[in-house]
Design goal:
The protein is of the alpha/beta class. It has one domain: 3-Layer(aba) Sandwich (Rossmann fold), CATH 3.40.50. It has a five-stranded parallel beta sheet, sandwiched between helices. Strand 3, helix 3 and strand 4 form a beta-alpha-beta unit. Helix 1 packs across helix 5 and helix 3 runs parallel beside helix 4. The longest helix is centred in the middle third of the chain and has 14 residues. It is globular, with a radius of gyration of 13 Å. The two termini are 24 Å apart. This is CoA-binding domain-containing protein.
């Protein structure tokens, strides 16, 4: 049985066709994996939006304290949820409320209920996958 939250066509489309990624949990610490993932996608032409309670500028982009603070959040193609699994559901719910088009939960961030809520709300969902690895595999 295939994983409903790792559809290769959805992954390929999000990586190739998306323009704007909001990264929940993206702060200015280059030692964190979210920083590396955001930088990688930025280097590949994506606009990144840092979402972190500190709301600092990261990688040259203005930061916001929450998805609700992002102007025109409905224009965000993908919300990367780089929070621990126990906090992922809240970020997914904010992505749904903001009108985002997709959510991406990276490796080891698994919240089946939140993923199902997002899918039921019409969002594309990728869970337990790494954008960098998927980029290399599916480009």
């Amino acid at each position: 049985m295939s994983d409903p939250f790792a559809d290769p066509d959805v992954i390929r489309r999000l990586l190739n066709e998306s323009r704007t990624w909001a990264f929940v949990g993206l702060g200015d610490n280059p030692a964190r994996e979210v920083y590396n993932q955001a930088r990688l996608l930025q280097q590949r032409g994506k606009r990144i939006i840092p979402v972190h309670p500190d709301a600092r500028e990261v990688l040259g982009e203005k930061g916001y304290a929450s998805l609700a603070d992002v102007p025109d959040a409905s224009e965000v193609d993908v919300v990367g949820v780089y929070r621990r699994a126990e906090h992922a559901g809240e970020a997914v719910d904010q992505a749904i409320a903001a009108g985002a088009k997709a959510v991406w939960l990276p490796l080891q961030v698994i919240d089946e209920a939140a993923a199902r809520r997002a899918k039921d709300a019409g969002l594309d969902v990728v869970m337990d996958r790494c954008p960098a690895v998927e980029w290399a595999l599916r480009r």
